[in-house]
Design a protein that fits this description.
Structural class: mainly beta
Strand order of the largest sheet: 1-2-9-4-5
Shape: elongated
Largest sheet: 5 strands, antiparallel
Distance between the termini: 42 Å
Helix content: under 10%
Order of helices and strands: EEEEEEEEE
Length: 136
């Protein structure tokens, strides 16, 4: 079916060609900070960012990124590849301290990943963050 772009939109002086058909950013996942089309309960826009990387040193925490002007973290979730060839949820506790993993945001907007001693260095992780900013 072909749509004539010269059709006038009822009640306006605009044609179909004048109407912008934007991409819905509420479901875009990117390693770049993306302003979604979602709004938090305080009417601030929600941002999303995906962080990927590898575990540096098991048994120690590492800063994986910093988010400037962060006001409120809404969601932190992720997965990490294990020594057993499986993707495990972050956070995770698998029976003993060496199998624990966590993600947190400190007061300066640093996103930190902590993993136990039984995770291997160089194993990949994916973290998804949703948050509001103090600049909005």
């Amino acid at each position: 079916m072909k749509i004539n772009k010269d059709l006038i939109v009822e009640g306006t002086n605009h044609t179909l060609e004048d109407i912008p058909f934007d991409i819905d950013l509420s479901d875009v996942y990117s390693t770049n900070e993306t302003k979604t089309n979602k709004v938090w309960i305080d009417n601030r826009p929600i941002y999303r960012r995906v962080v990927t990387g590898t575990v540096n040193s098991p048994g120690q925490g590492q800063t994986v990124t910093t988010i400037s002007n962060i006001r409120q973290i809404l969601t932190i979730r992720g997965v990490m590849y294990s020594n057993y060839g499986q993707w495990w949820n972050i956070p995770n506790y698998h029976g003993e301290a060496g199998y624990v993993s966590s993600i947190y945001c400190d007061a300066n907007g640093k996103i930190n990943l902590g993993v136990g001693n039984f995770y291997g260095a160089g194993k990949p992780f994916i973290i998804i963050l949703e948050y509001t900013k103090s600049t909005d």
